[in-house]
Design goal:
By secondary structure, this protein is of the alpha+beta class. The chain has one domain: Nuclear Transport Factor 2, Chain: A. The protein is 17% helix and 46% strand. It contains one helix and four strands. A four-stranded antiparallel sheet has the order 1-2-3-4. The N and C termini lie far apart (58 Å).
Length: 76
């Protein structure tokens, strides 16, 4: 028996284009109705001619801590 997987609809999506990569910010709703953010970095590998993607997932209760930590980072 074949299982049909329905793709999750995005609630919102933003894209940040950088010189060597693209970063996607996509929000979804989990099965338990909690919302989460998936941040995906996509880079094109010229040697293999393929896109390489890495993602992290943050649930709603983690976002404030994530934002606070980003603000504390010093790049001087």
């Amino acid at each position: 028996m074949e299982t049909k997987v329905t793709p999750k609809p995005k609630l919102d999506s933003k894209i940040l284009k950088c010189p060597n990569k693209t970063i996607f910010f996509d929000t979804y709703e989990a099965k338990n109705k909690s919302k989460y953010l998936r941040i995906t970095e996509s880079r094109y590998n010229k040697d293999t001619k393929q896109s390489v993607r890495y993602s992290i997932i943050l649930f709603k209760e983690d976002i404030e801590g994530f934002k606070k930590t980003l603000e504390e980072i010093k790049l001087d």
